[in-house]
Design brief:
single chain, mainly alpha, Multidrug-efflux Transporter Regulator, Chain: A, Domain 2, two-stranded antiparallel ribbon, 5% strand
Length: 128
């Protein structure tokens, strides 16, 4: 079976990041490309992990948070203690995201009020 792979330049272009960024994530254990001579070959798992890492970065997570979340993507173990830990971590990040979502909704509502205020002021200026 021939799986799809990507080179460092392929992923750099696709995600609009530098090869250095990819190597950085590799150095921190987020990506683990196959080495063929000097070339790095990224597999679908690496591509998915990169996507999750970039999403975590956009959301303001630390690198250790990102790594922990991405490692969870590979799934928890099957023991009760592993599953309980996995569930606790999921709850922690869910709460964190819900707070961020609430903050974003409040900010958007405040922006809407300010936009309406500007529209009213502009309308007044046009009638003067």
């Amino acid at each position: 079976m021939n799986k799809k792979t990507w080179s460092i330049s392929d992923l750099s272009k696709e995600f609009d990041i530098t090869p250095r960024t990819l190597r950085y994530y590799e150095d921190h254990g987020i990506l683990s490309p196959e080495r063929v001579g000097l070339q790095r070959l990224y597999h679908p798992r690496d591509r998915t992990r990169l996507k999750l890492a970039l999403r975590g970065k956009r959301m303001g997570f630390t690198l250790s948070d990102i790594r922990r979340l991405i490692d969870m993507y590979d799934g928890p173990g099957s023991t009760q203690s592993q599953l309980l830990l996995y569930q606790n971590v999921l709850n922690h990040y869910r709460e964190k995201l819900e707070i961020q979502l609430s903050d974003l909704q409040q900010t958007l509502a405040e922006i809407e009020v300010q936009q309406q205020h500007c529209t009213q002021l502009l309308a007044q200026k046009n009638t003067e």
